[in-house]
Amino acid sequence: MNRYLALLLLLVSIAVPLSAQERAPVALFESAQCLVNGKYLWVDVKDQKELQLAYSADPKTFGGASYIYVIVFSSPKHDQGKIFDVRIKDHHTYSIENNAIFAVTSNGITFPEPPLGGTWRQTQLTGSIQQILRHHKWYEAQVKALLKPNSHIRCETNVEDIVKPDK
Fold it and tell me: Any bridge partners for residue 139, and if so which?
């Protein structure tokens, strides 16, 4: 009887953390699909099983579109990664408006290469990264799920002259 109780407790202790993992919100998941699947390879997922993601909604709107900042972390400490400014044009159309690689150091947030848009854009991205890091809310997305074709989303970018198509 004690063995069965111990086995039951073990199974419950394993199941609780698994069920506590929250699914990424639709806009974050679909944006991430654009980052790994779109015409441009924004995030290389070769040899990866999952991505660590975070996001923040941006209160700005333009022409009826809303914006989110998406971070794809490249370190388990969540101190390095790529940030993307994504415009949600309509129900399932995502436009990658800007991106930058960042690292959190003792001197604050640094960018190996300045993002497009100069100091103003770098300040915007820095503020978004800080806000996302303060909330400590990360999501795991399985690469296998991100790579599945999704015919109801559309991926675009306004920086086509700067990035080269992957496909």
Answer: 53
pTM confidence score: 0.79
Fill in the DSSP letter of residue 97.
E
Give the model's confidence band at 103: pLDDT under 50 very low, under 70 low, under 90 confident, else very high: very high
| Per-residue pLDDT reduced to its tens digit, 61-72 | 666 678 899 999
Q: How far does Cα 163 stand from its chain's mean position?
A: 19
| Domain interval for residue 77 | 23-157
Q: How far apart are the first and last CA of the chain?
A: 60
Residue at 142 is within a domain? yes
Q: List 7's β-bridge partners, or say none.
A: none
Structure tokens at 11: 């199974």
Euclidean distance between CA atoms 38 and 157, whole angstroms: 10
Backbone phi and psi for residue 26, each to the nearest 5 degrees, phi listed first: -55, -50
Structural domain total, the chain: 1
**Separation CA 110–CA 101 (nearest Å):** 9
Q: What are phi and psi of 120, to 5 degrees?
A: -60, -50
Backbone angles phi, psi at 23, to 5 degrees: -70, 150
18 is a domain residue = no
* Residue whose tokens read 């991106």: 99
Q: Give the tokens for residue 102.
A: 């960042």
Strands 93-105 and 154-157: parallel
